Amino acid sequence: MSASLDSPTAASADRFRRLLEEQRAEAVQQREEALAECATSVPDPVAQRRSADLQRTIEEIDAALARIDEGSYGRCTGCGAAIPEERLELRPFARTCVACTAAA
């Protein structure tokens, strides 16, 4: 049986908050690098796409941090079920369970 965050403890919420904040800082740095590549005289479409993808990741991380603050982190926004902790370890900004992700 997999662990889930039915009622996340303050320690697990803090752990995921730290993980999200670390991933956000890394994504921001990578996006800044991609934007610097885009600023060259010949814009690089790969760097532009990378920058856009990183911006979406940053937005997903911000949404996950907001869910922690409001107390809904670890619950699927699709069906309301608890998201297994193993999934959150791999993708801490996941907002849906595997079943709802596959159905989308």
TrEMBL record:
UniProt-listed Pfam families: zf-dskA_traR
Gene3D superfamilies: DksA, coiled-coil domain (1.20.120.910)
Residue ranges occupied by any Zinc finger DksA/TraR C4-type domain in the UniProt entry: 71-100
Domain of life: Bacteria
PROSITE patterns for this protein: ZF_DKSA_2 (PS51128)
InterPro entries in the record: DnaK_N, Znf_DskA_TraR
dksA C4-type zinc finger segments: 76-100
Keyword Zinc-finger included in the entry's annotation: yes
Alphabetic keyword roster: Metal-binding, Zinc, Zinc-finger
Protein name as catalogued: TraR/DksA C4-type zinc finger protein
